[in-house]
Design brief:
Number of helices: 22
C-alpha cells in the first residue's frame, strides 16, 4: 500500500511537472538539471508552474495541503505568484458535495435541518484540507457556521502518515546525519496533532478554553460554540466577520494602524505561550481575522482551534531562558541554556558554541523583519545544529511551526516590526514574576495539599532516607575499591614488555603444534584446537596492550 502511494505521489509530481520549480530555483546544481531532463518531454497538466504546485498539493491530499498552507506565508522565500496560489489552500480547497455534507449534518444532529436551522446554505462558505464550512441561521435567529469533517478523510491521512513514517525511517537508516533530526519522533507527534484535528469535539473544547482565556481582554476574540449542536463530526459556532490579516489593501483602505496590529500579535503569542501555556498552533492567515471597527486600536479574531499547543514546565522554562538571553545579546547564556536543557550534548565546547551562536545572531539582532534574510538564517541555524549535534525537540516542533507562520504574517503586515523591542520587555516581566515572591507563594500553595497528605509519613521517610544515603555511601566506597583493584590489575598487565608478549605467542604456538600431533587428531580438529589457542592469545594481547 505504501509503495503504491509513493508511486502515485511520484506520478502526480511528474504530471504537474513540478520539476519546473526545482530547476528554476536559483543555484540548482547541474546534476539536478540532468536528472530531470527527461521530464521536459512530458506535457504538463497546468500551463502555469505556480498553479501546478497548488493543484498537485490538492490532488495529493490533506498532509500536502497543510504543507502548502505553511509555505503560503513565506513571501520572503517564494515568488509572489506562487505564494498567492498557495494562499488559496487556506480556505479554497475544492469542496465535497453539498448533498453529502447536509446528510452528515442531519445524521449527526439526529434531526432534520429545518428542525434546527431556519436557513442553511447548501454551498460551502469555505473549504479546507480536512473540513468545509456552511453558513446558516438557527431558529432563534442567531447566525452560525457549521463545520463538517470530510468523509473518508481519516483513512487518507492515516495512509499518508504511514508513508511518512516509512520515509523517515529509511532516511534515518541511509543518512546517519539525519538521526539528530528525530524524524520518526516528529512524524509520531504530527500523527497525534493532525488526528486530533479530525475530532471536532476536541476542537469545541479547545475553542471554549481559548475563548475563556481571552474573554475580557479586548485583544483577541474567539467565536462562541454551541456544544448541544456539536459532536465529533460537526461543530456549530457563532459566525464572525473580519478582514483577513494579510489583506493589506483592505487594511490600508480602513486606515488600520499596522504597527499596533503587529505589536499586538506578538503580545498575544507570547501571552498564549508563557502566561496561559495554551497557544493556537495553526495560525495561517485563513485562521486569523482583524476587527477594524476601531482602526487605531485593531484587534484579532481567531478561527479553527483544532490544533492547540502546550509546553511542559521544563520546556517553557528553558525556552524563556534562551529567549531572554538572546534578547539581552548574552550569547554565552544562550549556549549555557542549550546545554542545561539538553538540546545539545553536555560535553559541547561552550566557548566554540558561544562563538558560533554570536556569529549567527549578531547580523539579525535589533533589526526589523524586512532586513532579515530568513532563508539565510535557516541555513546558518541548520549548519550550527549539525556542527554541534543539536537534536530536534519533537515537543517543540508545533511551537516552531507556529512561530514560522506568525513571522511570515508579521513580515507581510508590518515589515518594520522590531521583534526585540516588543518581546524583550514581555519576557523580562514574565521571568521576574517566575522568580518573585508571589510566584513562590503560589507554588507553595499548589503543593500544600500534597505536602499535608505526606506529612504523617515524614518521620518514616526521613528514617529510611538516612539509611538509603548510608547504603549509597557504602556502595560508592565498595565501587571505588573495586575500580582501584581493576586499575592495579591493568597496570600489572601493562608491565609486560613487547618481548614478553612475543615470547608468550611463541610458547602458545609451540604448545599448539606439540599437542595436535600428540593427540593424533585429524586436520579439521587440529585446526580447531589451534584456532582456540591462537584466539585466546590474541584476546590476552588485546586487553593487555598499553
Amino acid at each position: 500500500m505504501a509503495k503504491l502511494r509513493a508511486l502515485k505521489i511520484l506520478l502526480v509530481l511528474c504530471q504537474y511537472r513540478l520539476d519546473r520549480q526545482l530547476t528554476e530555483f536559483e543555484g540548482a546544481p547541474l546534476w539536478l538539471h540532468t536528472l530531470l531532463l527527461p521530464l521536459k518531454l512530458l506535457p504538463a497538466k497546468e500551463a502555469s508552474k505556480d498553479v501546478a504546485v497548488r493543484a498537485a498539493l490538492v490532488t495529493l491530499g490533506p498532509i500536502f495541503i497543510k504543507f502548502g498552507q505553511l509555505l503560503s506565508t513565506r513571501k520572503d522565500i517564494l515568488s509572489t505568484t506562487l505564494a498567492e496560489e498557495l494562499e488559496m489552500l487556506q480556505d479554497r480547497v475544492p469542496p465535497f458535495s453539498s448533498e453529502q455534507s447536509l446528510q452528515i449534518i442531519e445524521t449527526n444532529l439526529g434531526r432534520s435541518i429545518p428542525e434546527v436551522f431556519s436557513h442553511l446554505e447548501h454551498e460551502p462558505l469555505a473549504s479546507a484540507s480536512v473540513a468545509q464550512v456552511h453558513s446558516g441561521v438557527l431558529l432563534c435567529g442567531e447566525q452560525v457556521v457549521v463545520k463538517v469533517i470530510r468523509p473518508g478523510i481519516s483513512a487518507i491521512i492515516q495512509r499518508d502518515l504511514d508513508l511518512l513514517a516509512r520515509i523517515a525511517k529509511l532516511l534515518t537508516q541511509f543518512w546517519p546525519d539525519l538521526a539528530r533530526l528525530r524524524l520518526s519522533d516528529i512524524v509520531t507527534d504530527y500523527r497525534h496533532t493532525i488526528l486530533d484535528e479530525l475530532d471536532l469535539e476536541l476542537e469545541r473544547e479547545n475553542t471554549q478554553k481559548l475563548r475563556a482565556n481571552w474573554q475580557n481582554s479586548g485583544k483577541l476574540y474567539v467565536p462562541m460554540v454551541y456544544p448541544e449542536l456539536s459532536n465529533k463530526n460537526i461543530l456549530v459556532m457563532e459566525k464572525v466577520s473580519g478582514i483577513v490579516v494579510t489583506d493589506l489593501n483592505e487594511l490600508n483602505k480602513r486606515q488600520v494602524n499596522l504597527r499596533k496590529l503587529a505589536h499586538l500579535g506578538v503580545e498575544i503569542f507570547f501571552t498564549q505561550v508563557f502566561e496561559d501555556n495554551f497557544f493556537h498552533a495553526d495560525m495561517h492567515p485563513g485562521n486569523v481575522l482583524v476587527n477594524a471597527s476601531d482602526p487605531e486600536n485593531p484587534t484579532y479574531i481567531a478561527l479553527d482551534c483544532a490544533i492547540i499547543g502546550v509546553l511542559s514546565a521544563d520546556d517553557q522554562k528553558y525556552l524563556a531562558k534562551n529567549l531572554l538571553a538572546f534578547f539581552n545579546a548574552d550569547y554565552r547564556a544562550v549556549a549555557l541554556a542549550h546545554i542545561e536543557s539538553g538540546w545539545v550534548p553536555a560535553d559541547t565546547d561552550i566557548d566554540a558554541f558561544e562563538k558560533v551562536i554570536a556569529e549567527v545572531c549578531r547580523p539579525i539582532f535589533g533589526k526589523p523583519m524586512r532586513e532579515i534574510r530568513f532563508a539565510g538564517l535557516l541555513i546558518a541555524l541548520f549548519n550550527t545544529a549539525r556542527e554541534f549535534n543539536m537534536e530536534v525537540q519533537p515537543q517543540l516542533v508545533l511551537l516552531q511551526k507556529t512561530l514560522l507562520n506568525i513571522e511570515g504574517i508579521g513580515r507581510q503586515v508590518y515589515a518594520d516590526l522590531d521583534l526585540w523591542e516588543t518581546a524583550a520587555p514581555f519576557m523580562k516581566r514574565w521571568m521576574k514574576r517566575q522568580t518573585g515572591f508571589v510566584h513562590f507563594m503560589e507554588e507553595l500553595k499548589s503543593l500544600a495539599p500534597a505536602a499535608l497528605a505526606e506529612l504523617p509519613e515524614l518521620p518514616r521517610n526521613l528514617l529510611f532516607a538516612a539509611r538509603e544515603i548510608k547504603q549509597i555511601s557504602l556502595n560508592q566506597r565498595q565501587q571505588a575499591r573495586l575500580l582501584t583493584t581493576l586499575k592495579s590489575d591493568f597496570q600489572h598487565f601493562h608491565k609486560f614488555s613487547k618481548t614478553a608478549r612475543l615470547t608468550t605467542v611463541g610458547l602458545g604456538l609451540a604448545l599448539g603444534f606439540a599437542i595436535v600431533p600428540g593427540l593424533q587428531l585429524d586436520l579439521d580438529q587440529g585446526l580447531l584446537i589451534g584456532t582456540v589457542i591462537l584466539g585466546t592469545i590474541a584476546l590476552y594481547l588485546l586487553i593487555s596492550r598499553p
